[in-house]
Design brief:
Two copies of one chain form a homodimer. Chain A has nine helices and 17 strands. By secondary structure, the first copy, chain A, is an alpha+beta fold. At the A-B interface, α1, α2, α7 and α9 of A face α1, α2, α7 and α9 of B. Chains A, B: Pfam families: Cupin_8.
Amino acid sequence: MEEVKKRVTEFSLEAHDLYLNRSVPYLEEPPDPLQFYRSWIAPNKPCIIRNALSHWPALSRWTPEYLRQKVGSKVISVAVTPNGYADAVSGKYFVMPEERQMTLSSVLDIIEGKGQLEKAVFYVQKQCSNLLEELPELTDDVEPHISWMSTALGRLPDAVNFWLGEASAVTSSESPRQQRCVYNRVCVCVDDAFTVSVHKDHYENLYCVVSGEKNFILLPPTDRPFIPYGLYQPAVYHQRDDGEFEVVEQLGSEVPWIPLDPLNPDLEQYPQYRRARPVRCSVKAGEMLYLPSLWFHHVQQSHGCVAVNFWYDMEYDIRYNYFQLLESLCGAASAAGPPGKSSVGL
Amino acid sequence: MEEVKKRVTEFSLEAHDLYLNRSVPYLEEPPDPLQFYRSWIAPNKPCIIRNALSHWPALSRWTPEYLRQKVGSKVISVAVTPNGYADAVSGKYFVMPEERQMTLSSVLDIIEGKGQLEKAVFYVQKQCSNLLEELPELTDDVEPHISWMSTALGRLPDAVNFWLGEASAVTSSESPRQQRCVYNRVCVCVDDAFTVSVHKDHYENLYCVVSGEKNFILLPPTDRPFIPYGLYQPAVYHQRDDGEFEVVEQLGSEVPWIPLDPLNPDLEQYPQYRRARPVRCSVKAGEMLYLPSLWFHHVQQSHGCVAVNFWYDMEYDIRYNYFQLLESLCGAASAAGPPGKSSVGL
């Protein structure tokens, strides 16, 4: 398997030389659908599009006051964790957030620091088209789809999601130390060994920041050989009556997940990550990130950041087929590695 | 390497289940550029387009008489072989045709059976934009580019080639026995062990048949693991004054080529080819084949068939990068196979 390891490594490095950019380029206006398909979707490359949301009323309207008045009484799904780490790795567990039904007003109270100090981090992030399903009153402030993207792909988005959360809420996260220092949250079930991960989706993703700022770390699918995977028992957080959290193990088989923290990668444990070439970018209010399917990503946000994203399911064509080959090779190469090692990266 | 062999085999079979068609579909009219990009170029799938050339004067004009009158005195490059096999494998050689400068009239004489019986097969097939470079007088009868394809790709073709040849001239070929029987050619330097091959190009290819018919055997790039390669010493044919041919070895290192004859595959020698799934199609006068980049192909034609093709260089993006990985894996897996075997297929 050493030979395979060598070849997939060469392949990954070649991708960077051949067609990938060293940073995320900007487009200064909404693109022509065909040009966008050809230059970004087909070659599977990210970019940031400016001036594509200028006509959204949301950009000026979506203040906490407006949201309270318009949809404050609506009950929405909120991800609740002790630390802001939704879908992350803790010890042998892959821990998902507690999902709680709350009014949007009460979430805004927490974000604005009104009322009692919570021992939890709240994040409106349910990825099931929650904008259209749970908050249809807000749809007119944005758009139900991005017309040039829908034209490019020949179909409407599969989901439109609304994101609102605290600075410590991340799709992966800040480091526990930093978070504890700033927010003084209490984490009873996790310790400093809690690691923050990256993940990928099978969607073409247009991520639109309405207010605040989101910071992304992106890794191309071709960097897969350098990204470690482990197998973890699924679990969910549960906040007890005393406010403390416990981790409740779930039934079901172990799930593969990435244990590496891209903000502070443990290169002793995952030396292969030295060869990865993460790209960082900051997406500001009024900007839109095109995050291509199967790109690994890690997201941090400014406090009170509001965003809307559009998910278009990817095409399961030759590129997907090739990625599946790469995945299986990375698994195979590692399976032939030292026994007892859980990582399925190279 | 058995594990790698298993995985690339699974990958190839999955491609057929996932997105490939069992035959080449037809489009009944010239497509919209974006739709064509999305449905055929990006997923790298062939199709035949009807009614896309109806406005070409060439369809009715290009008789032998017209070509004689219009460009008969033009000197053009002609591929000359004893057997119609341009770029094929003979013994340890990869043999390229003798390239001869002839008037188009004299080529037409041969095709029409006028004059003395030739001991050679002639094929106008120089792939260096010979229509625009050598026969610009014919350009107005066709088009200098295919507008919807140029719009789709955002650029003009890299080459426009004119093809005219005998039935025994093939980019690969008929079986030697059939050919000898029908055309009574004399092959002094080759024998029945001469094999006829398939090849691939790094172009998006629009192949337009003006008169006659072309028969293609196509294999997707994902079938690469089932396609044997060997290393061959480059050589060219040279017709001596007595009309007989000799093979002249060229300087330079060995070239990788496919020794398999897809019309009559030797499954004893290349058992892996049992798993390949070649697709056959026939492209008739007035039809256009979209032959995607990196598809392996073998072409036969009806006698006197005239065609024009447009080559647009492929994008060297993620799909090319992935194909290079597949190539290197196929080489690696075979290199670990029995010693002395020249094939670099799996």
